[in-house]
Amino acid sequence: MNQSEIDRLAKIIWDYHHLNHQLEKADAILVLGSIDTRVAERGAQLYLDGWAPLIIFAGGLGRLTKGKWDEAEADKFAKIAIKMGVPKDKVLIENKSTNTGENIKFAQKILEFKGLAPKSIIIVTKPYMERRAWATAKKYWPDKKLIVTSPPSSFEEDLKGGIDKEEVINVVVGDLQRLKIYPEKGFQIAQDIPAEVWQAYEKLVAAGFDKQLVE
Question: 35 pLDDT exceeds 80?
């Protein structure tokens, strides 16, 4: 399979992952940790633009940062936000989680400890993780108003987010598999996956893009 066909198939899946939610003002912003520091910048800018009065950074060291970073994703992201002008007293940090489900659950524990119960939350993540972040959060927070957003970028621009193209495609493929199998495990709410998207997944897996699949 040539590179242009690989890119075409990966973009089909990338587009499916991207929800294109419209921003609305909310009670809090939850920034999910990752290797892509543009996510931290996006969350901080949303706070600075007045979309919510509180910002939470969630993430320890996950499958892409463990062994590469020497500090938790949430700690690194919070430093970026504070440097951009977000007040320290408006920042909460959850730096123990290692996956998306834990991001949500552990952030909820911190909110409860602080006596906070936001009814609406803007979730900030990578563009190709929007759908899985939303499906996971909806499992744990079915009654909250959830809006998912990410750094504005195209598929091509997204390949510049801190990991190389092959790794991005592996993650895009792996996240689609999780959307398929995680509802059965109780980790997410179910999502309809169009035939074209699943066919693209199968072709990319057959081509060797299986490094982020769950066994």
Answer: yes
pLDDT in tens, 99-114: 899 999 999 999 999 9
- Residue 76's contacts (CB-CB under 8 Å, 6 or more residues apart) are 37, 40, 69
Whether 95 contacts 60, CB under 8 Å: yes
Instruction: Show Cβ contacts of residue 91 under 8 Å, excluding neighbours closer than 6 positions.
Output: 55, 56, 57, 78, 81, 82
At the top level of CATH, the class of 3-206 is: alpha beta
pTM over 0.85: yes
In angstroms, the Cα distances linking 180 to 7, 40, 82, 197, 199 are 22, 28, 37, 11, 13
Average pLDDT of every residue of the chain: 92
pLDDT digits (tens, 9 = 90+) for 168-191: 899 999 999 999 999 999 999 999
Tell which residue, 56, 42, 30, 51, has the closest CA to residue 134.
30
Nearest-angstrom CA–CA distance, 46 and 143:
23
Distance CA 47, CA 26 (A): 10
